[in-house]
Amino acid sequence: MTNMTISDEWLTYTWVRLRTGVEPHEVKRLLIKNGFDEATIRALMRDAYDGRRPISDVDHAALSNAPLTRRALNHPLLRRVPVSKAQLYVWPNFLAPETCDQLIALTDERLRASTTTDVFADPKVRTSRSSDIGSLGNNLVMQLDELIAEALGVHWSYSDATQTQRYDVEQEYKAHYDYFLPGTRDYQVHCQFTGQRTWTFMIYLNDVEEGGGTRFRRLEKTIMPEKGKAVIWNNLNPDGSVNPYTIHHGMKVRSGVKYVITKWFRERGWGEMFPAEYSINM
To answer: Which of 23, 40, 193, 195 could disulfide-link to 268, CB 3.0 to 4.6 Å?
Structure first.
C-alpha cells in the first residue's frame, strides 16, 4: 500500500484506537498487518503520536500551572475552591443538559460492577456500577474527550479512557485517593506505561434528589451534584509528589440516582502536553 490514498475509513480506524487507549505500537502492528508501509503509517498516526514521552521529561511545576488554572482567574463560571492544601476547581454548567442526557443513556447501555485496582479490597468500598464509554469509539465521547482536554489544557493522549459511574440508593465510593501510592504493587502495575495519575476531571450528569456529594474530608469541603457541573483537582503537588489532601469520598445516594463522568490524566502521552491551540481561547 505504498503511497496509497488514505481513506476516511482508515483514518477513523487509526484514531479511534489511539483515542480509546490502544498503545501506538499495537496500532502500528495492526496497520502493518493490513498492508500499510512505514510512511503511510506515519501519515496516519502523525509523528507526534509515534511514542510516549519519558516520565523523566514531565514538568510537574508546569502541570500544576495547567491552562485551566490561569483560565480560572477571569472565567465567569470556573472558580478555584478556597483551600490552600490542594488545587480544587468547580465549573458549573460545563456540559449542556442535553449532552448529559445522551451520556446517561449511553452509560445505561453497558453497565458493570465498579472495581478498584486493589483486587483484595473490601467490595463494600465501591458499590456503584461503571460503564467504559471511552472504549466504544463513540463520536459523542470523542468530542467530550476533546472538550475536557481543551478545558484543562492538556492533550487527550495524556489521559485514560473515559468512564461513567451510576450510583443508586445507598451506593457510594468510600474515602480514597485517585493517585497510586509510589512503592506499592499497584503503582508498579498501573503506572509502568502511562505514569502517575495527575489531574482528575469529574462531571456530574444529573441532579441528585438527596445525598451523593463528593467529600474532600481533609480539605473540609463537600461539593454537591448539579447537572453538568465539573469538579477538577490535581492529585499531585508541584514537585510531583502525591497530595494526600486529595482524599475524597463519593458519599451515599440517599434518594434518587447519581451519574458521573470520570477522566484521569497521566504523566505520559504523545507529543506536547500543552498544545498551543488549547490556549487560544484562554
So the answer is: 195
* Whether residue 23 is found in the same domain as residue 154: no
Range of the domain at 70: 55-279
Asked if residue 112 and residue 21 are part of one domain, the reply reads: no
Residues 6+ apart with CB under 8 A from 167: 127, 128, 173, 212, 250, 253, 257, 258, 259, 260
- DSSP one-letter code for 112: E
Domain count across the chain: 2
pLDDT digits (tens, 9 = 90+) for 216-243: 999 999 999 999 999 999 999 999 999 9
In this prediction, residues 179-196 reach a mean pLDDT of 91
SS3 68: helix
CA-based R_g, the chain, Å: 19
C-alpha torsion 20→26→30→31, nearest 10: 90
